[in-house]
Amino acid sequence: MNGQQTIGIVGGGQLGRMLTLAALPLGFKVVVVDPSPGCPASQVGAEQIIANLYDAKALKKLAEKADYLTIEIEHLDANILEQVAASGTPINPTPKTIKLIQDKFAQKRFLHKAGIPVAPFAEVADAESAKAVLEAFGGKMLIKTKYGAYDGRGNMVIKKAGDIAAAFKTFKGQQLYAEQYIPFVKELAVLVARDFRGATLEYPIVETIHERNICVKVLAPAPSSESVRKQAESIGNKVAKLLDGAGVFAIEMFLTKAGQVLVNEIAPRVHNSGHQTIEANRTSQFEQHIRAISGLPLGSVDLVVPAAVMINILGRRNGTTEVKGLAKALSNPHTNVHIYGKSPTKVDRKMGHITATGKTLTEARRRATQARQQLSI
Amino acid sequence: MNGQQTIGIVGGGQLGRMLTLAALPLGFKVVVVDPSPGCPASQVGAEQIIANLYDAKALKKLAEKADYLTIEIEHLDANILEQVAASGTPINPTPKTIKLIQDKFAQKRFLHKAGIPVAPFAEVADAESAKAVLEAFGGKMLIKTKYGAYDGRGNMVIKKAGDIAAAFKTFKGQQLYAEQYIPFVKELAVLVARDFRGATLEYPIVETIHERNICVKVLAPAPSSESVRKQAESIGNKVAKLLDGAGVFAIEMFLTKAGQVLVNEIAPRVHNSGHQTIEANRTSQFEQHIRAISGLPLGSVDLVVPAAVMINILGRRNGTTEVKGLAKALSNPHTNVHIYGKSPTKVDRKMGHITATGKTLTEARRRATQARQQLSI
Fold first, then answer.
1. How far apart (Å, rounded) are the C-alpha atoms in residues B247 and B271?
2. Are B305 and A304 an interchain contact pair (Cβ–Cβ within 8 Å)?
């Protein structure tokens, strides 16, 4: 094929894999950079450059091969990405947005300045100033690393002044900030897509359920009042308009006891809170992201089923991956299983996910839960 | 991954490609046999054995690699497939079913014996007996080759005794039969799936529109009366139960002026009349086929949109493939484009397809038609 275009993805894990599966039907080639030989994306037709994600040479090679570049993870060297972008291959989201989001403190400041509701936050240079902040925040807060936090790593709850020293010890050498602890009734997320021209589209909001700080379940659409839904959607829309560059962005939010929606954080990419869009929405987050970053128009975000529940298949042991119980897991006809092709399996490693749909969330949740019980990996 | 299972597909064209894209998320590996290096399936993650589909050695190699075997085309050597099956790797549909369907005359006889309505048909050994048959059929009939007919090749309309000689000349050396010409108002198709245990499930019936004997458009669900729908579904169900082996089968039918549904032919595989199931149904025909042939339970066949229209992207010139106008083709957000990765493009070669969905068939059809007009390949 003449003029066949190539999508380059930094990272070839499950997100890169599902992006690849969405890009191929549109006629794209896909190349990924990933350090693990036989990474999940490479198993589904992506060419792989085996290299560390911080390897400037590998990223330049990726840019040479690709017409459009994107990422599946934001923990990258944005300066290298800027250099790569300078060579002419468009990167979306832009290195500027990636840089902003990498620094969680800068991200919070940016959102706050733009009038987006966030929990009160403050820089904490040392244990002494952290104590003052704890007092100002009413005696309960989180200490977080500015960089590199992921799936709950990089967060500590501070309930008393005595906890502060432990946090500074654990996060020694890292830049930290504090956030007031806001009791929340649930967590919500909204996926927003931005195309090349800046047009935006929000998916219906979902509820995310976390355990051990890992997203384990997603309920779509989120069970919520009209007022909460409107708050969350309006925030999603505002945030999407603020960000630079194209792509899908996930905005994670808290619903406080007082009924207020606060932004927790943004992921500048497809996200675990959107896996159920493959079955539940007219356009999956993966196809949407590919469309957005390659200059194609966005697809409809309409739900095509009344309700869907996604459950992550997290590893429960350490060892060689072996999928068992797939037939039993699929015994309800409204259930799908996605296996990521990772080995070994590890405790809490994201090995796959299940999506079940139904007439109600209760029905979908029951189906998804039953499927998870049948499956081992 | 330990115990990872492999699907082997005889043929790696667009059907093999879409089967591959459906098999990978379930955690399967895919291997195909196809004579064209870089075949469509190999571009989306299938390992390819480059060989002719009639190459016994290649098919045996495929069987050694695969846990489950299937086909994307029925024009194969069923005897080789029987030998391969004897080695222990399950082939679905079974070689017995493939054999039956390869011989269109035997297929008709089989259906007729089982009480499935078909147009009157008769063997024609020579031009002389064909004349008698033409008279018996009221002066208009089709002469068809028993074997190898595909996309209209192998069919000739006989309107007068003088046409018979030409047909026998064109099909010299081939076994022929005749079918009474039945004027029809539309063509319908129903996809049916059979699992390992023989349980069956029918997709909602669709209308297929042919030009130059090639399926060019599919309307889902078929605009039809309740009575026609019931006839077609009941036929689909009966045929599925008659056939041997698992998989998706497509049953193509005529609706006569008199309101009767007649079976035209069966395809023992995923089919062009089911491409829109990717977007329009809870489980695509491709995932359904993979589930069926690998012993997994069938997924729901429910429509998830009110209406969908599929239009084939047929080549309009001969030359190197070059996709143009993709962004314009996708400008309506309820439109999808699937490119098969074939080159060169040829007049009437199936290069891809478009599916548009809508609140009504009229809306979906308008969207699909507009998208096709924007795209060149």
1. 12
2. yes
- At residue A106, what is the residue type? A
Q: What is the pLDDT of residues A316-349, one digit of tens each?
A: 999 999 999 999 999 999 999 999 999 999 999 9
Q: Is the pLDDT of residue A153 over 90?
A: no
State the best of A5, A326, A335, A349 to mutate against chain B, taking most chain B CBs within 10 Å. Answer: A326
DSSP, residue by residue, A214-227: EEEEEEES----HH
- Enter the pTM of the model: 0.96
- Asked if A326 lies within 8 A of B26 by C-beta distance, the reply is yes
Task: Say what the pLDDT of residue B234 is.
Answer: 94
The CA distances from residue A4 to A53, A247, A250, in Å, are 25, 21, 30
Is B1–A321 a contact, with Cβ atoms under 8 angstroms apart? yes
- Please compute Rg for chain A using Cα positions: 20
Residues of A in contact with B300 (CB under 8 A): 333-334
Of A333, A335, A341, the CB nearest to B27: A341
Of all residues in chain B, the one with the smallest CA distance to A288 is B333
Q: List the alpha helices (DSSP H) in chain A.
A: 14-23, 56-65, 78-86, 95-102, 104-113, 127-136, 162-170, 226-242, 277-280, 285-293, 326-329, 361-374
Residues B296 and B215: their CA atoms lie apart, in Å, by 30
CA A45 – CA B279 distance, rounded (Å): 22
Amino acid at B322: E
When CB atoms are compared, the residue of B25, B27, B339 closest to A21 is B25
- What does the pLDDT average to over B131-146? 94
Q: Say if strands B214-220 and B307-314 run parallel, antiparallel, or are unpaired.
A: antiparallel
Q: Which residue of A has its CA nearest to B291?
A: A327
User: Three-state DSSP class for A348?
Assistant: coil
Tally DSSP H helices, then E strands, for chain B: 12, 17
Cα angle vertex A211, ends A205, A212, to 5°? 130
Residue/partner pairs of A130-136 with CB below 8 Å, 24 or more apart: A130/A158, A130/A164, A130/A167, A130/A168, A130/A176, A130/A178, A131/A161, A131/A164, A133/A178, A134/A158, A134/A161, A134/A164, A134/A178
B342 Cβ contact list (under 8 Å, min separation 6): A1, B13, B14, B40, B321, B349, B350, B351
Residue B136, φ and ψ in degrees, nearest 5: -60, -30
> What is the interface size between A and B, counted as CB pairs within 8 Å?
130
Q: Output the CA–CA distances (angstroms, integers) from residue B207 to A135, B63, B186, in the order listed.
A: 70, 36, 7
Half-sphere exposure of B56 (CA within 13 A, CB side): 8
Query: What are the phi and psi torsion angles at A53 (to 5°)?
Result: -70, -15
Contact B67, B294 (CB under 8 A): yes
Percent of chain A whose predicted confidence (pLDDT) is above 90: 92
Do B299 and A333 count as a contact with CB atoms less than 8 A apart?
yes
Q: Residue B169 is encoded by which pair of tokens?
A: 């000349």
Q: Which value does ipTM take for this structure?
A: 0.95
Predicted confidence (pLDDT) per residue in A198-254, tens digit = 999 999 999 999 998 889 999 999 999 999 999 999 999 999 899 889 999 999 999
Helix axes A95-102, A104-113, angle to 10 degrees: 100
Q: Which residues 6+ apart lie within 8 Å of A358 measured at CB?
A: A305, A306, A307, A308, A309, A334, A364, A365, A366, A367
